[in-house]
Amino acid sequence: MNRRSERIWIEFIMGSRKTSNFCWACILLLGSLGFLLVGISSYLGRNLISLFPSQQINFFPQGIVMSFYGIAGLFISSYLWSTILWNIGSGYDRFDRKEGIVCIFRWGFPGINRRIFLRVFMGDIQSIRIEVKGGVYPRRVLYMDIRGQGSVPLTRTDENFTPREIEQKAAESAYFLRVPIEVF
């Protein structure tokens, strides 16, 4: 969703609250709970899960390994659920021609750097750069080159843009900022 006028352009960035992240977090949580229950049932000698009789799985070594995988999966799942809860990576890009300032805001992990805020003068922006990496999983990322500060990504690296979409986005950004486009 974008808000745009002649002087101000605000582009909202979607964070980690994507459908794929929800699906992976649920699958990982359920799978790791299954592994942990099988490991615990092999330790107790009872059938906590009716699909696997505890007599078929010995606690040493299969039950220990299943418990380890279950605990590791719970840690990874809790990490995914935390990023979804905190909506890591979400924010906005605000381009203001009237004041001549570009503001980039993103949410990070809790702590000192929870709010990532970058403010740049439009005069310091050298160009809009498209970086294209081909292969089996092609990657197209849009960067804003800033004099003396390097490059700042304007798109997520995991977004799969078609060549037409990335070119259009680069052209819109370059036209609004009145800077050239570079392709690498």
Essential attributes:
alpha+beta, PH-domain like, 2 domains, four-stranded mixed sheet, 3 helices
Q: Short description, anyone?
A:
It is a multi-pass membrane protein. This protein is of the alpha+beta class and 184 residues long. It has helices at residues 19-44, 59-86, 163-177; strands at 2-4, 8-13, 91-96, 101-107, 115-121, 125-133, 139-146, 150-153, 181-183.
Q: How do the strands and helices of this protein lay out in sequence?
A:
Elements: E1 2-4, E2 8-13, H1 19-44, H2 59-86, E3 91-96, E4 101-107, E5 115-121, E6 125-133, E7 139-146, E8 150-153, H3 163-177, E9 181-183
Parallel strand pairs: 6-9
Antiparallel strand pairs: 1-2, 2-3, 3-4, 4-5, 6-7, 7-8
Helix pairs in contact: 1-2
Overview of the molecule:
- It is found in: Plastid, Chloroplast thylakoid membrane.
- One of its GO terms (biological process) is photosynthesis.
- Keywords: Chloroplast, Membrane, Photosynthesis, Plastid, Thylakoid, Transmembrane, Transmembrane helix.
- It is a multi-pass membrane protein.
- With about 180 residues, the chain is of the alpha+beta class.
- It has two domains: about 1-15 and about 90-184, Roll (PH-domain like); about 20-85, no CATH class.
- Helix content is about 40%, strand content about 30%.
- The chain contains three helices and nine strands, in the order ββααββββββαβ.
- A five-stranded antiparallel sheet has the order 1-2-3-4-5, with no helix packed on it. It has a four-stranded mixed sheet with strand order 8-7-6-9, covered by helices on one side.
- Strand 3 (about 90-95) and strand 4 (about 100-105) form a beta hairpin.
- Helix 1 (about 20-45) runs antiparallel to helix 2 (about 60-85).
- The longest helix has 28 residues, at about 60-85.
- The radius of gyration is 24 Å and the shape is elongated.
